[in-house]
Amino acid sequence: xxxxxxxVFMENRxxxxxxxxAVLKNNKVNIASLSLADTNEFGILRMLVNKPEAAYxxxxxxxxxxxxxxxxxxxxxxxxxxxxxxxxAICEVHINIEYMYALSTGGDDASxxxxxxxxxxxxxxxxxKGVEIITPExxxxxxx
Length: 144
What we know:
Elements (H helix, E strand, L loop, with lengths): L1 E10 L4 H11 L4 E8 L3 E8 L2 H10 L3 E12 L5 H11 L4 E6 L7 E7 L2 H10 L3 E2 L11
Antiparallel strand pairs: 1-3, 1-4, 2-3, 4-6, 4-7, 5-6
């Protein structure tokens, strides 16, 4: 099962992140996970939020360039080599990992958000290897 990830492209300048978060707060959007990557001039803020469509529209109305993308979230046991084994399974079927970041879900396991070149094949491969796929409800948000 995929989740909708909200990506926001913004200038790398003081206060810009706060402006994005204010728009989300004012529209009652809750963030479950985020990743911020930057260059000297621009950044990409990637988030899993409870209302992806509403968040996208609110940001657009406020002049922010954003995009909704399907991603896959998986649960990994905390043991040496688990992440490498997950990546090996994906590599064996020749799927490119475009990016990934940690997802905080609580409990004893680790969780990752993955964006690959073929989410359907990635999900099948990982399920076949016994990797648990996380649903939006499991991260504690009622996604729309």
